[in-house]
Amino acid sequence: MTTLFYPRLAGLKREQRPGGIHRISVPVVLGLVFWAGLYLIMVRVLNHFTTVDPDLGRILAAKLLALLFLLWLSFLAFSALITAVSQIFLARDLPMWIAAPIPLRRLFRVKLVEVATLASWTAIFLAIPVWVAYGVVFGAGLGYYAALVVAVGCCVAITTSIGVLVAVALVNLFPARRARDLLSLVALMFIAGIVILLRAVRPEEFVRPEDFGTWAEYLVSLSNPTLPWLPSYWAARVLGEVLGVYNAVHWDAVTMYGSLLVVGAIVSTIAAGGVFREMFRTGYSKSQEARQVQWTRQLWWRRTVQFLARPFPRRVRAMIVKDVSTFFRDPGQWSQLFLLLAVIAIYLYNFRVLPLDAAGGTGYLLRDLLAFLNIALVGFVVTALAARFVLPGVSLEGPTLWLLKTSPVTIGEILWAKFWSGFLPLVALAELLVVLSNALLQTTLLLSVISVATVLFLSAAIVGMAVGLGASHPRFDAPDSSQVTAGYAGFLFMVMSALLVLASVTVLAWPVYNSFRASWLGWGVGAGEWGGIAGGLVAVGGVSAIALFTTMQAGTSRLSAREL
Amino acid sequence: MSGIVLTDLTKSYGAFPVLRGISLTVEPGELFGFLGPNGAGKTTTIKIMTGLLLPSGGRVEVAGYDVVKDPYEVKRRIGFVPDRPFLYDKLTGSEFLEFVGHLYDLSPATVRERSRDLIERFDLGEWIDELIEAYSHGMRQKLAMTSALLHEPEIIIIDEPTVGLDPRSQSRMKTLLSNLTAKGHTVFLSTHTLEIAEALCTRVAIIHRGEIIALGTVDELRREARREDSSLEEIFLGLTERGGSIDESSLV
């Protein structure tokens, strides 16, 4: 059994050799800062609960613990499912394991431990300050920490086993590559679903007792268990009881929910083992036959993309068509559009429900102010999207860059093709957001024109900076685009982009304010105000153009000089 | 038409010299074999010839153009097939060929017409509308070769042309290379498969530790190595094991 873990353990051991400590020091420091920050916030929140009203505070603390465990378990479950598919069916070492005379029972144990470790360590790392904060605020003894270890262990065992079980079943139904693609889509829709749910449920209303008929109704509503059939509630209940959150320790509840956790862990592990032994071989065989069925291979799709790229020269057009086709054939990329749709829906919904009427006679001031600040908000949305979709473009080209660099295409043509592929959809989205939010706010035509023009300039500059910085600091070794976004180029891009957006809004603030003041005071917008606005727009356009062309030029030079 | 001229070519990675002053000439229409053990500098030489790396010193002229001064003109005239061709997994074979054709400014009709013949020659017809991610290594190699020939380059540079190819495809590849040189194309191929070099190449160069240690026809190498009955493999092993060299001036 230990032999099967040897390759992974040996790899980890090598990470500890000289240089390793230095390499990991930055993440360790950041991790400790995160821990400290989250711990202090949690302690403050829990202390606030218990000091304002001890009885209500305890109920709120128990409710919060159950909700946090629910969220934690949800992430753990999805992480386990995705890790299980990749570790059990797509890992590179699998052919070696399968060819070796290793009984399936032993292979299951190894894979279970691998999946449990890989899928849960981040979730556990993130939750430690929360659990410790509960222990400190409620003066917990060793019993709490012992119960915590058992409860967390059981939750990990349950989610891992179910992840393995579902993964094996899924791969028997779909080939593994499609199953993983399907899972990434499900995971993203799950995140989008949570965001939408939070907005639909409007959790802020729970902290407004006046909305309930009586105080008792409010307390009863809070005391109701949150999804009591899930292990997250069992774990939260056991820990809440041991902490004394429910005033006294109800040992019958501890025994019942504790037993549910332990039995659940054992039963799910046995069930997963049985399913693994019965279905793994057929599933693995099927996963090797994976084929993709793509709607983007239909003639109408190709013709549409080619038609849209028609205005560009042949070589640039070829690269745009290639970029768009590969994007929409990679579910890891396009499935994030669901998240994007959720963001847009929430964005516009927030404008719709803004309590402008509550501002009374000054509602129009608030409306104009919001419409103006909306320019910056849209700038940040474009920044976030460009960081995710545009910035990694050159890095993802890495292994295939030999083809472009040995063909008669200039690096400039490659980068401008990437610019247009990113700019056109992002500027359309940004303008849509601006126009719709301005319509919802019923803002003036003047402000609408300013918004549309500024967002056009900013979008071009932001996309240009994403392409240029992505080309200046590519990461050809990055396994996926998120690693590029999280790297040096991503950091630099975010900072530069944020500065550009803030600078643009600052430059426009004074002339826009002057024109509004003239309008509010009934003077009418005169030549001076118009001149100020035109000057502001020219300045923003000029700065945007400088940002766009200098970063694109820098990217072209650095990528041209780069040896492959 | 011009071939390839390397003059005193050097390349260092930091302080480590990989190429130590290589000079050789490949005549137009020649099928030239570039041999050497692992790490000898074959791929580095090819990468410099194709513009993927810049030389540390010396001069490289391909198809009459300097690769450093006129990379664009060089790239228009060469077709390159690397030893491990990473292609766009999410494109189909036919989409990939169309993409490469457009990079060389070929019209869609020309791409279709030229692809048809090459696809048939490499037995890719059955797979050409599948995504490349479903292709085996050999099929990727064949697709890369097809794409490199689409624009009918003057000079074809191939790194390990037969790796991953089945015997039938290897045989077709050999015929294709011979036909290309018969039509006046220049072929520069780097290979470990000495049997191919012996059977096809008009001349070979053996590179070892960044230096050319032998250059000439296989018969010339035999004579100079005083191993008249030896195969190219035996000459190669003899030269690279003892690290010695044949007097190049007598061969060229």
The helix content of chain A is over 70%
Strand content of chain B: 15-25%
Beta-strand residue fraction of chain A: under 5%
End-to-end separation of chain A: 42 Å
- The succession of helices and strands of chain B, N to C, reads EEEHEEHEHHHEHEHEEHHH
Question: Mean pLDDT across all residues of chain B, rounded?
Answer: 86
Rg of chain A, rounded, reads 28 Å
Largest sheet of chain B: 6 strands, mixed
Widest β-sheet, arrangement of strands of chain B: 6-7-8-3-9-10
Number of DSSP-assigned strands of chain A: 0
Shape of chain A: globular
Total helices of chain B: the number is: 10
Low-confidence stretches of chain A: none
H and E string of chain A: HHHHHHHHHHHHHHHHHHHHHH
Polypeptide structure, described:
The complex is a heterodimer of chains A (564) and B (252). Chain A contains 22 helices and no strands. Chain A has helices at residues 2-15, 20-52, 54-90, 94-99, 104-137, 142-173, 176-201, 215-223, 231-243, 251-287, 299-308, 314-328, 331-334, 336-352, 363-389, 393-397, 401-405, 411-441, 445-472, 481-485, 488-520, 527-561. By secondary structure, chain B is of the alpha/beta class. Chain B has helices at 42-50, 71-77, 93-103, 108-121, 137-149, 167-182, 194-200, 218-224, 232-242, 248-251; strands at 4-13, 16-26, 31-35, 57-62, 65-66, 78-81, 155-159, 186-190, 203-208, 211-216. A six-stranded mixed beta sheet of chain B has the order 6-7-8-3-9-10, with helices on both faces. The A-B interface holds A 291-292, 294, 297, 302, 314-315, 317-319, 321-322, 325-326, 329-330, 399-400, 402-410, 561, 563-564 and B 47, 50-54, 72, 75-76, 78, 80, 82, 86-88, 90-92, 95, 98-100, 102-105, 129-131, 133-134, 147.
